């Protein structure tokens, strides 16, 4: 049981860490870079990213972080690190809620705007998307990074 329990916990930490890194990379590199592009390039790039990011690996990490941390909490309920794992799972869940309630609807509206070559007021479409999406992405990056940090603390709190 200990090997399985440890493997589940490590997988949870890895999934949460990779998601934190993804959202952080968008915050400090991808969005600042796209922010320097013209409106059509920005909208087109984000539309394409939002399509390709929903792939099996992303979904495995996205859902796996939640599943493995909750499973680890159950498996470690009698250990000192239990509350660290619970805190990591709760923080991760908050990040998922931000993604599902705020970032994804913004992505959907951007996609629904249609082909950037045919959008009459591309600047308005970008303006309605960019600042809100960036703000909520930073929030989820911070929350996911905090989840990763407390899970790592839990791993060293035996």
TrEMBL record:
Keyword DNA-binding: no
Name of the protein described by the UniProt record: Putative membrane protein
InterPro entries linked to this entry: Anthrone_oxy
Recorded superkingdom: Bacteria
Transmembrane segments: 7-31, 51-75, 82-102, 138-157
Pfam families documented for this protein: Anthrone_oxy
Organism this protein belongs to: Williamsia limnetica
Keyword terms, alphabetized: Membrane, Transmembrane, Transmembrane helix
